[in-house]
From TrEMBL:
<dbReference type="InterPro" id="IPR002645">
    <property type="entry name" value="STAS_dom"/>
</dbReference>
<dbReference type="Pfam" id="PF01740">
    <property type="entry name" value="STAS"/>
</dbReference>
<dbReference type="InterPro" id="IPR036513">
    <property type="entry name" value="STAS_dom_sf"/>
</dbReference>
<feature type="domain" description="STAS">
    <location>
        <begin position="8"/>
        <end position="110"/>
    </location>
</feature>
<protein>
    <recommendedName>
        <fullName>STAS domain-containing protein</fullName>
    </recommendedName>
</protein>
C-alpha cells in the first residue's frame, strides 16, 4: 500500500480465495474511514476465487453508497470471472496511472460544484 496525494493505492498480490477473502476485505474496508479515493491494484494477483470476487462487489457497493471513488486495476486473475459475470458494475481501469488521471480529471469539476453549492 502506498498513498498518493490524489488517493490511496492498495496493491494486493498473491491469491484471494475462500480462506482469506473476508480478512482481505476487512483490511480494505479500514481505508473507507480515510474518505479518500481508493485504487485497488489487482494486476499482480495470481488467483481470485468467487469469494474474493463477491467481496470486491460488496466493497464497490459500499464505496458507492458512501460517495467515495474506488477503482480496480484488473489483472489476469480476474479475467475468467469477468467473462462469466459481465454485469458486475466494477469500475475497472487498465493501470494505476489511468486511475489517478481519472481522479485528477474529476477534481476541478468537484471544486466548481462545491463553490456553486456554497
Amino acid at each position: 500500500m502506498y498513498a498518493r496525494s490524489l488517493g490511496i493505492v492498495l496493491r494486493v498480490d498473491g491469491e484471494i480465495d475462500s480462506f482469506n477473502a473476508g480478512r482481505i476485505a476487512s483490511e480494505i474496508r479500514r481505508f473507507n474511514r480515510v474518505k479518500s479515493p481508493l485504487i485497488l491494484d489487482l494486476s499482480n494477483l495470481e488467483f481470485l476465487g468467487i469469494d474474493g470476487f463477491q467481496e470486491l462487489l460488496a466493497l464497490n457497493h459500499e464505496y458507492r453508497a458512501a460517495g467515495l471513488y474506488c477503482s480496480v486495476v484488473a489483472g489476469l486473475a480476474m479475467r475468467p470471472l469477468l467473462r462469466i459475470v459481465t454485469e458486475h458494475g466494477l469500475p475497472l481501469v487498465h493501470s494505476v496511472p489511468e486511475a489517478l488521471q481519472l481522479i485528477e480529471d474529476a477534481l476541478p469539476g468537484r471544486r466548481v460544484l462545491q463553490r456553486l453549492v456554497r
